[in-house]
């Protein structure tokens, strides 16, 4: 019994050390290992200002009433609480590489 408790404690400590972000939604729970630090968020915010489509959404032009696009408290454009990534190839590549190299990524056919 004590061996099981030790193993359970080890698993809890490993889970804590993964720095997972857990967000509870009304109908779901979102877990992720990719966290956005303030420098990266600032980079996204600045890049959003250079994307013509996102700028139109930020100023409210061509946006239907009750739109799901909103500016958060940091001035970052979001769609239903998700960050809008500008049409910037380098930024998209960096995000995809981070997700691909994550310890929790799953590759079909890999054992």
UniProtKB/TrEMBL annotation:
Gene Ontology MF annotations: transferase activity
Domain of life the protein comes from: Eukaryota
Keywords, ordered alphabetically: Transferase
Protein name listed in UniProt: Polynucleotidyl transferase ribonuclease H fold
Organism lineage: Eukaryota, Viridiplantae, Streptophyta, Embryophyta, Tracheophyta
């Amino acid at each position: 019994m004590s061996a099981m408790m030790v193993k359970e404690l080890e698993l809890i400590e490993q889970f804590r050390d993964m720095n997972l972000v857990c967000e509870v939604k009304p109908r779901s729970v979102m877990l992720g290992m990719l966290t956005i630090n303030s420098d990266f968020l600032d980079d996204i915010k600045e890049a959003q200002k250079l994307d013509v489509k996102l700028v139109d959404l930020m100023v409210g032009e061509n946006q239907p009433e009750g739109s799901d696009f909103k500016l958060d408290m940091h001035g970052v454009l979001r769609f239903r609480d998700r960050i809008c990534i500008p049409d910037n190839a380098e930024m998209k590549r960096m995000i995809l590489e981070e997700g691909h190299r994550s310890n929790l990524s799953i590759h079909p056919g890999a054992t």
